[in-house]
Design goal:
alpha+beta; three-stranded antiparallel beta sheet; 6 helices
Length: 249
């Protein structure tokens, strides 16, 4: 059976189950994913997941996917005497490496600004906290814009279309590009009414490396010293072999 057929069957089973529960009385927006795990190998070129579910037609749905967090550094380059140099930089702490957003309307049209800020919904509401305390007293608006712009350029920060069917079934297709980082991704569904969040519901997507590349990565993490010496020895052997070949030539 093809993967697309399996996905369609899963969606139909999910809809049948939710209808039997009675979504009108539900306190959460029930949803599911076509799969909750992505394996990255050497031939990985990106992958699409389908998110689908049911909710009250009187309410709005907002979907946010947040990737694993890390410190991100933005650099400002200047050209001096024909050469480019890193003139200054700002490092932000605990920034989601991936941030996907999906809703049927603009966030500002369906959600109160205070709610958006508190729940960090929308690119402009991601809390960008500088690592250096002195930067807390500096206007970082241009740096913030640069960070969001660069992440969008990498397709790691992106808006996705949310489709509605009969005002009850919602669906969005999330595309994870080839440069997507590994780790656990939190998928959150927010149920909104009268510009207020009524409830939220979470699921996890796990993205892992697979194959020989993953085994080497795990070994390097668990045996740092051995891996380091091994790479040095390998480089020496490779260099010596190349030198001998060129001598013979």
């Amino acid at each position: 059976i093809k993967k697309s057929k399996i996905t369609n069957i899963n969606i139909l089973i999910f809809i049948s189950f939710i209808c039997s529960v009675g979504i009108a009385q539900a306190e959460k927006a029930y949803f599911d994913l076509s799969q909750n795990k992505i394996e990255i190998d050497t031939n990985f070129t990106g992958q699409e997941l389908i998110l689908f579910g049911l909710s009250d037609p009187e309410q709005d749905i907002i979907i946010v996917v947040r990737g694993p967090k890390e410190n991100l550094t933005i650099r400002n380059k200047k050209r001096i005497l024909g050469f480019w140099f890193n003139a200054s930089s700002v490092t932000y702490i605990d920034i989601p490496k991936v941030y996907f957003l999906s809703s049927k309307s603009k966030i500002d049209d369906i959600l109160d600004k205070k709610e958006s800020y508190n729940y960090e919904i929308g690119f402009s509401n991601i809390k960008l906290i500088p690592k250096n305390q002195k930067d807390l007293f500096t206007d970082l608006s241009k740096w913030n814009e640069s960070l969001i712009r660069l992440q969008k350029k990498k397709n790691l920060y992106k808006n996705f279309e949310l489709k509605l069917v009969d005002d009850k079934l919602f669906q969005t297709r999330l595309y994870f590009p080839s440069n997507v980082p590994t780790g656990n991704y939190i998928v959150t569904i927010y149920r909104v009414e009268n510009e207020k969040i009524l409830s939220s519901n979470n699921k996890i997507i796990r993205i892992n490396k697979s194959g020989i590349g993953n085994k080497i990565f795990i070994f390097a993490q668990q045996n740092t010293i051995i891996y380091g010496f091994g790479t040095i020895i390998f480089a020496i052997i490779l260099g010596t072999g190349a030198a001998l070949i060129f001598r013979k030539l």
